[in-house]
Input
Amino acid sequence: MDGADVWWGELRPSEGGREQLVRRTADGVRVGVLGEGVSARTRVHEYGGGAWAVRGGVLVYANWADQRVYRLDVNADGEPVAVTPEPSVAHGWRYADMEIVPAGLWGEAAWVVAVRENHEPEVLEGHGEAVNEVVAFPLAGAGSVDDVAVLVSGPDFVSSPRVAPDGSALAWVQWNHPNMPWDATELVVGRVEFDKDGPRLGGDEVVAGGPGESVMQPLWAPDGALWFTSDRRGGWWNLHRVGAGGQVEVVAPVDAEIGEPQWVFGQRSFAFLPDGRVVCALSHGGLSDLAVVDPARPELAPEALVTGLTYVDQVAAGPVGDGPDIVLIGAAPTVEAEPLGVSLPHGDAPTAPRDTGERDVETTLGLGGDALSVVDGGLGGGHALLERLRPARESVVTPEWISVPEPIAYPSAEGRTAYAILYRPRNPEAQAPEGTLPPLIVSTHGGPTSMARATLRLDIQYWTTRGFAYLDVNYGGSTGYGRAYRELLNDAWGVVDVQDVEAGARHLAETGVVDGTKLGIRGGSAGGFTTLATLAFGGGTFTAGANHFGVADLTALAKDTHKFESRYLDGLVGPYPEAAATYEQRSPINHTDGIACPLAVFQGLEDEVVPPAQSEMIVEAVRAKGLPYVYLAFEGEQHGFRKVENIIRTREAELWFFGKVFGFEPADRIEAPPGAGF
Output
């Protein structure tokens, strides 16, 4: 939020997969800010995030094409101006997690604080990998190297640089190899000094975090207190604040997550309301709430603010004014993820619809009366409004087509309980033959710390409307169930996840929900590894698999991947090369003799996370075995496909593939993939 304006980013597959930034003004007008072809996207950590910031109508953003930061005053008729220097090589300097420091805090001019990832040749040669730092540069600068001040350097990784309201301090998160940010991080506060040469730190102190504690998302409250989320209390990411004397206090303890693994920059799980309360995204078991916390009563658990939401992300709040009080990305079982605004009652007056066309949520959100609603709890009376700021798309389905997600739990290996979201087939215009059961697709999410969520996703409804049951598995290692569940995958990647996905498929077959002879598995990235590992090492449960840019060779991944994940496998598999035997043992590429069913493989040719060679090796092995296969590789795609034509082609080819294996011809007219091995 920027005053009464609300900003968000939109991935636009129809425009080559670029990230457009949208500004919605107080009168409800939405405007795309970036020029044609420009994409606000950063390469830091390869996964990016936090690629832009705005304050007072002035935008700064990382330009995907050259990775430099540009300034754009949206209230003036000017062109974007580069404010970071030009590197000596393409993408030599990359920026993320930006914050604008207003004029008057650090001298008369405004500054930008950001994470910089340095890939300049002399740095790579001297350090053996990129160097991550916190830097500052003038907002009105002309991109001079001399203008950039390095504030934090030394840790392997840094994130979330946040400046205190009075400019006197800088907070940030740091961690070192082999930890990932959900393993162990430190929250550091440094004293800012400023003179004619710019800002610098005059000393710093670790205020939270350390071994066995994941600290994330530091945020300064308006009163100057430092808040953050940490899993120090029972392994759940909860709100904490640094009190008087530097003591850390948990606020609103709850056995649920306020926060999620920091795969990308710019995450926002909580925000401060003008009345002093805190609004947050509260998640547990694949379900999320928008909740409020009263700092004056820190012992009380968060209280739900909106009912019906099952996904909440990117929570922001602004001052009382013409715009909504809270904005977020929200979704529900029948509502796709989209930007929503919550307008709270102020004083004794109820909140009334303004002249921007919004109405109470009962008439604007939800399908067939299955709507979201704002509750009065903690609001002090009055009536609040929930409005959609930007529908995800024109409505393409009516309620009778939608398969409503069902969270389930089921027994897995070694007495564990595993979790998943079940979607049953649903199509009002088609009926399966009497006495038959549907085929099943089991989905293995990436991460592998991600979480399957019970929301409306049309990519899942694609399958359920075509007669498939769909099981989105939260295998051991997933987020949303506390640290202990997340750590089930430590030293057990390719074991616990395989057990849990196989147990889920067998559970549905044994309980008569699906046809046990028609079980497919699909996954991308880390989920692609689980898919391949299940086919190679599992008990022969599945009769078809689809691998989207998944890991086939753990040894190759350990030797050839980007900095952020270069030591990730230390925790999931073991340190390399000490655990080389385990890497060999768990790599599907070394055990293709175990793969006995058809396989479809999809790969981006510019993927820096899982290089194309990984997919090509597994395809060659399957081809050599004489198994039916499909292989599609796409120019210009990275780790995850962003172009509309490639997304469509992949989905249709995958349906064609499962149709071939399970013995049916899709009603969709689909061109057979070239060179398909059937």
Summary: The mean pLDDT is 91. The chain has eleven helices and 36 strands. The domain at 399-662 is CATH 3.40.50.1820 (Rossmann fold). Residues 644-662 form the longest helix (19 residues).
